[in-house]
Design a protein that fits this description.
By secondary structure, the chain is mostly helical. It has two domains: about 70 residues, no CATH class; about 140 residues, Orthogonal Bundle (Tetracycline Repressor, domain 2). It contains ten helices and no strands.
Amino acid sequence: MLRQMEQLAAADPRAGRRGRQAEARRNDRAVLDAAREVFAVHGPDASVAQVAARAGVGMGTLYRRYPTKEALLQHLCQASMDQQVAAAEEALARGTDPWEALAGFVRECVGFRAGVLSAVAGTIGVTEEMRETAGRAHNLLEQLVRRAKRAGALRRDAGSVDIHELIELFSRRPPGNTLAHERLLAIALEGLRGPGSDALPGPVPDWQAYVRRWSGD
């Protein structure tokens, strides 16, 4: 493969660059998927070597792009939040039943383990891009939550941070036994349906308190 890319680059430098860029994108996706699995099993102490091995990518490839573990984790968190933004935008744009839009968003985020990298909260620096994307993802989720509440489909004492934390919880599932987790997620979602018979314990979680975890407070 490398030899073919070198030959292609020699014949057409632009095609060579496109080939390298495509390979970098494939590696990025493989590393993101691997990191989600590794951190789901091993938590925040998982090593970069474990991620690279799971992704089938050499350590040299990783360190050429991300010189430190923190740089890699910042990139992975950003990529994960970008996916959440895209999922929320799609859910809002579909114009489907408000409950199905919200529940579909949750299922999609759990499917790609959107919340598993929350395990590193407070252990890495937060870039301005990460902060802005987190706020955008939250605002989009707020729109989904408000729509579902207006339709009477979501219980009034549930908030968007409850949804964030539900996604985190189910993102940490270990490999295997997918059906059991799908069943439990379905049960959890049913518990959020409005109007709800018994009040939930405690106040509605606060967004500012939720994000302060990332600053290590």
